[in-house]
Specification:
Shape of chain B: globular
CATH superfamily of the largest domain in chain B: FAD/NAD(P)-binding domain
Structural class of chain B: alpha/beta
Strand order of the largest sheet of chain A: 1-3-2
Helix content of chain B: 10-25%
Distance between the termini of chain A: 47 Å
Order of helices and strands of chain A: HHEHHEEH
Radius of gyration of chain A: 22 Å
Radius of gyration of chain B: 23 Å
Number of domains of chain A: 1
CATH superfamily of chain A: Winged helix-like DNA-binding domain superfamily/Winged helix DNA-binding domain
CATH class of chain A: Mainly Alpha
Structural class of chain A: alpha+beta
Shape of chain A: elongated
Number of strands of chain A: 3
Number of helices of chain A: 5
Distance between the termini of chain B: 36 Å
Number of helices of chain B: 8
CATH architecture of the largest domain in chain B: 3-Layer(bba) Sandwich
Largest sheet of chain A: 3 strands, antiparallel
CATH class of the largest domain in chain B: Alpha Beta
Largest sheet of chain B: 5 strands, parallel
Largest interface: A-B, 34 and 32 residues
CATH topology of chain A: Arc Repressor Mutant, subunit A
Oligomer: heterodimer
Number of domains of chain B: 3
Helix content of chain A: over 70%
Chain lengths: ~110, ~425
């Protein structure tokens, strides 16, 4: 009996949270749409970078050309992906450093496939 | 929002940079209860964002982090970070606690009592946003802890860039995510207030002659601090436009300071020394690079500073006396610097891979209309006795320390912070005796 009451209470709280989230999504509709658009673009750009780097090392200008992205934006992504452990800095070639996919990132991609 | 929550302290310190921390520690160690109110999500101010400090070349983080930690763990010093001050004035209704501040705690969308700072929310968040802690040169996530040694270790959710996808909430092991957090107002009553609101750099976007921030590879000095810091955006010095290791780097001094057209007629005092410091660090990390400093005068006023300058010259850093008139974008990401050389060789143009603007310092906080404390014509807070007690303001229970009163280096800031703590303590003990 007591357990049933507890379950009912939890269900009610869940429903209330769900309704509140729905309302919050309506309130932030414009922001959410803009953020989703940014996320999709970023996902596409990162995918292009990772596809290009698959099995090879490359410099920022090479990656930018291969992924068809501006060089500054490519560096911005590479610095960020390096910070989050998805990219590793390799040896220097001339005045540029080379980068490659991290092992952790490769195994994660394999798992996703 | 109705203020029902009142907190009482001996002293309110406005600003949690090195000046605020030092002031609070000096008072807290004497047994005074001190509240630090900070607008950023972490204490530490500008100093925690620096690479090293002049003239000793000590690691800035190694000096600041223990102070941050000491304040955070001090029984007499509670921290109120990510807060906005909406009013700060005398409270005429309260004789014992004559200072009243109304403060808004901004929502982090994370419950600080539940969060353990594990960063799982940050790792799963799918949106990258420009990381202003790294000068915008790399990205962080829409929910993230500001930087690795931030205090408190609490993430902030950027709702402007949040899709409400729920991934952070799902992964949080302590159910700390709270999408419904609202700003909360509270009141601090205190016997004294110490203003330690520091400085900001004049934005490079304001400098038309130097490209209004639109020329690639023209960065400001705080961005260069991040490039030189071990936990910087690239973990090394690279050109932001293409990742090239620069071979020729120039510093443009007085980029904003001593320039009436920029609204900053005064000398910012620290630019010469930090440019020399950065140049020395650069010649360590890029030994083959040519480093040039374009200057009007070198102002090496502090203990050991002149020797520091002479050391820089001996290391091969080139000092050219001449005010840079303009900077234009060159080929392949270079910047063209045009200046009149004071050695008589006339107008010269030079190409550099990377140019650093030593931007002027402006006040970090405008008290008006929040607080009636007086400002000088330079907009910094007025010291009523600049020679014998520079921490006194026109309000008898309000004190000022550090760059809030005018541009100054860390050495002077720390000294002045101790002085402000002493004046506040003196004021409080006098009040007790009078009563």
């Amino acid at each position: 009996m007591e357990n049933n009451d507890k379950d009912k209470g939890a269900d009610k709280a869940k429903e209330a949270k769900k309704a509140a989230m729905k309302e919050l999504r309506v309130q932030r509709k414009t922001l959410i749409a803009a953020a989703s658009k940014i996320m999709k673009e970023q996902k596409k750009d990162i995918k292009a970078i990772k596809n290009f780097l698959n099995g090879q090392t490359a410099t920022i200008p090479e990656i930018a050309e291969g992924a068809e992205l501006p060089k500054d934006k490519t560096l911005w992504y590479m610095a960020t992906l390096k910070k989050y452990g998805q990219i590793v800095e390799g040896p220097k070639e001339g005045v540029f450093f080379k980068y490659f996919l991290s092992e952790a990132d490769k195994s994660q991609e394999k798992a996703e496939v | 929002m109705v203020s029902t929550h009142i907190k009482k302290f001996d002293t309110l310190v406005v600003g949690g940079g090195i000046a605020g921390l030092q002031t609070a520690l000096d008072l807290g160690d004497q047994g005074y209860k001190v509240a630090i109110v900070e607008k950023d999500a972490s204490i530490g101010g500008k100093m925690i964002r620096l690479s090293k400090v002049f003239p000793t070349l000590d690691c800035a983080s190694c000096i600041t982090t223990p102070k941050m930690s000491a304040a955070a763990h001090h029984k007499n010093i509670p921290l109120f970070t990510y807060c906005n001050l909406t009013s700060l004035d005398h409270d005429t209704s309260n004789e014992a606690l004559g200072v009243k501040a109304v403060i808004i705690q901004n929502p982090r969308y994370v419950d600080p009592d539940k969060c353990i700072g594990c960063r799982q929310c940050e790792y799963v968040c799918p949106i990258y946003v420009s990381d202003e802690e790294q000068g915008g040169l790399s990205a962080t996530k829409a929910i993230s802890i500001p930087f690795s040694n931030a205090i408190p270790q609490l993430p902030i959710m950027d709702i402007e860039n949040c899709m409400l996808c729920g991934q952070c909430e799902k992964v949080c092991p302590t159910n700390a995510i709270d999408y419904f957090q609202k700003p909360e107002e509270f009141i601090i009553q205190a016997k004294t207030a110490i203003i330690t609101t520091g400085f900001e750099l004049l934005p490079k976007e304001d400098n038309f002659q130097y490209g209004s921030g639109k020329i690639p590879n023209v960065v400001d000095s705080l961005q260069m601090e991040r490039l030189l810091a071990p936990h910087g955006p690239y973990n090394r010095v690279l050109r932001p436009s293409d990742g090239m290791e620069p071979d020729s780097i120039a510093y443009v001094q007085c980029a904003g300071s001593r320039d009436k057209s920029m609204g900053v007629p005064y000398c910012s005092r620290v630019c010469c020394m930090y440019a020399i410091k950065q140049a020395m660090l650069l010649s360590g990390s890029l030994p083959l690079a040519d480093i040039t400093i374009y200057y009007m005068d070198i102002r090496a006023f502090g203990k050991g500073y002149e020797q520091f300058y002479q050391n820089a010259k001996a290391m091969g850093i080139e000092f050219i006396k001449g005010k840079v008139a303009r900077i234009d974008a060159g080929e392949n990401g270079s910047a063209i610097v045009r200046y009149e050389n004071q050695d008589g060789s006339g107008i010269v143009t030079a190409n550099h891979d990377l140019v650093v603007l030593s931007m002027g310092m402006i006040p970090g906080w405008n008290p008006a209309p929040i607080c009636p404390v007086s400002k000088d014509s330079d907009h910094f807070i007025t010291s009523i006795k600049p020679k014998i007690s520079p921490v006194l303001t026109n309000m008898n229970d309000f004190f000022v320390a550090g760059a809030a009163a005018g541009p100054k280096d860390i050495v002077d800031t720390v000294t002045e912070s101790g002085s402000a703590a002493m004046e506040a303590a003196k004021f409080m003990s006098n009040s007790i005796m009078e009563n």
